[in-house]
Write a structure and sequence with these properties.
- The protein has 10 helices and 10 strands.
- The protein has about 250 residues and is an alpha/beta fold.
- The protein has a domain at about 5-90 and about 165-250: Rossmann fold (3-Layer(aba) Sandwich), CATH 3.40.50.
- It has a 6-stranded mixed sheet, with helices on both faces.
- Helix 4 (about 105-115) packs across helix 5 and helix 4 packs parallel to helix 6.
- Residues about 1-10 have low confidence and may be disordered.
Amino acid sequence: MSARVEEKDLQSLAGEGLEVRFEGLYALQDVGLTATKGEILGLIGPNGAGKTTLLNVLSGFQPPRRGRVVCDGRDLTGSGPRAHVKAGVARTFQGVRAFGRLTVRENVEVASLATGMRPLAARRRTDLLLAEFELDEVAGRDAEALPYGMTRRLGIARAVAGDPVFLLLDEPAAGLSESESESLMQMLLRVRQERACCLVVIEHDMHLIMRLCDRVQVLDQGRTIAVGTPAEVQADPRVVDAYLGERAARA
């Protein structure tokens, strides 16, 4: 367990009664979510269901019209991304936000330094993360020259560099091959095990989600329609009708 988790003793990240509207259309309608330290929570649902909007609210990039975001009893609603990061919340995006002309090493080291870490400690953490995410062999390469799968891993490594308690991942396996997805899943499981942090994962790869997650929450048209274990969610008729049945029909 990381020293930061013990010191701050963060236990849960919660959204309560969240509502977001864009030009009169609901992106989220009375959505609640609770993510507990040490668990992996999956977020699934059709395109446009509100999953990324929910991550944006939980990470401070989108203020809700109604509702609250609470991190271990502290109300973070509307406080912005910087306050969320200080509270132990980090996230990745569908498009990896890396500094293309910096090396892989520099990208991870900058992320560590941004948390206030001293340079020597940041270099040591960078070495560990490069090895953990199997990026050490390309550490000196410019980020913009990386293959796609390595770019996805770099984005996660940068987020983990801040030693988060809650790591929010937006489609981390998008565009990856089957073997790359399998490798990524093992890395995410190690992140949870070795860092005792919570992962909230948006993903359309159902094979990955159902093996990776302790619980799954399903959104449809801006509302939560089911929450449960992977087996419970897969057997829920509402989920089959709204999402899984549609995907099976396309398969």
